[in-house]
Hints:
The structure holds 2 protein chains of 2 kinds. Chain A is α/β, with parallel strands linked by helices. In chain A, about 45% of the residues lie in helices and about 15% in strands. Chain A has helices spanning about 5-10, 10-25, 30-35, 55-70, 125-135, 155, 195-210, 230-245, 250-280, 285-295, 300-310, and strands spanning about 45-50, 75-80, 90, 105-110, 140, 160-165, 185-190, 220. In chain A, strands 4-2-5-1-6-7-8 form a 7-stranded parallel sheet, with helices on both faces. In chain A, strand 7 (about 185-190), helix 7 (about 195-210) and strand 8 form a beta-alpha-beta unit. Chain A is globular and about 65 Å long. By secondary structure, chain B is of the alpha/beta class. Chain B has one domain (about 5-130): 3-Layer(aba) Sandwich (Rossmann fold). Chain B has helices spanning about 20-30, 45-55, 70-80, 100-105, 120-130; strands at about 5-10, 35, 60, 90, 110. In chain B, helix 1 packs across helix 5 (about 120-130) and helix 2 packs across helix 3. The longest helix of chain B is centred in the middle third of the chain and has 14 residues, at about 70-80. The model of chain B has no long low-confidence stretch (mean pLDDT about 95). The interface of A and B includes residues 12 and 101 of A. Strand 3 of chain A pairs parallel with strand 2 (about 35) of chain B.
Amino acid sequence: MNIVEQVLAGSKRALARAITAVENEYDEAVEIMQQLYPHTGRAHVIGITGPPGAGKSTLTDKLTKEYRRQGKTVGIIAVDPTSPFSGGAILGDRIRMNELTLDEGVFIRSMGTRGSLGGLSRKTAEAVKIMDAAGKDIVFIETVGVGQSEVDVIKAADTTIVVLVPGLGDDIQAIKAGILEIADIFAINKADREGVERLNTEIEMMLELNQTRVDWRPPVKRTVASLGEGITELLVAVEEHISYLQKSDQLSMRRTKRTQNELMALLDEQIGRYILKNITSSGEFTAVVAAVERRERDPYSVVANLLRQVLR
Amino acid sequence: MEKRIRVLVAKPGLDGHDRGAKVVARALRDAGFEVIYTGLRQTPEQIVEAALQEDVAVIALSLLSGAHNHLFPRIVELCRQKDMSDVLIVGGGVIPDTDIPGLKAAGVAEVFTPGTTTSAIIEFIQTNVK
Lengths: 312, 130
């Protein structure tokens, strides 16, 4: 059996290896993805995002246990930041998920961002597909702890949960653009803390000002993930969102948009690689760089020229 | 994208002291490794299963409880059973010199005792990783 057949047959070792191949861009990665692609599109993908320390990992752990009680299999991709200096990373999300390690129906993979700035790693979407093809019913993507603008998770997830905690800021924070706009569901975690009423009101007021998206108003759910409180209610909200997506044309619209984005990103990547290989690593390019630096030529006409070479 | 060495840093058994493991994890991070840290009180089964899912090249065990002669070989054995013999297994902690030959014979590639520099650990991993 080759690696693809093993992944489809449910081998965890093959699943792990396939993700590594894709993450490190091994030669066989393209072929693996080509063969797995027809088997994707079945899993429901849930994004979990929010600031560092909000409780994303603990919430993912608890939601996974709930899905396991329902008999569903779960894949989890947990992204943590890569150091911009050393390229190394400490991936620590498993700490909150240790009880899931030996569950045969759960597969957890940690990924470093490796230079990506949108809250995911560049290969997260591929890892989701591999888990999907391996037959996981639910795939969670847990982003890095985000600030205000790391919103890549909506490109990969069907349902996005934004996790917030009381006490992080005043009400203007809640009307800023960015992660608050991407929520399909809000979870106020650590809801036993002071300030939960105020945060809840602020989110509701922000949603009130929302002129568009009237067909789905993101529900606001309160949880205390460490104690398992509010988890069932949060899961009900996810299920409601799934059935909304299916009843409206939203699911197919989102997935069309995603396919479009993926094709463009792949094209972008291949063209970039072509340019790197054929243009920017040539001696001619080094000479052009020097000429631009000396102000003998300008970057804009140089790029226009290079582009004509590429498209020739 | 160049290959990054992935290391699982784990604390097997009933031992609540993780300062050493964290220092090593941090040093490995600064050396450009991707370190998966799983936290305290892991069973050998949990450690090997996490190593399998994370597809790591190295398992670095930290243990201060004295149970190394039991737990380290068990982890090596579980790796063999799961067809993960290519994973480099190293250990560290307060381990008597007299126990080290036995651990190595059991399949632990190297044992680092107190006083080892982090650069020695990094160098050993970089030289011996498959």
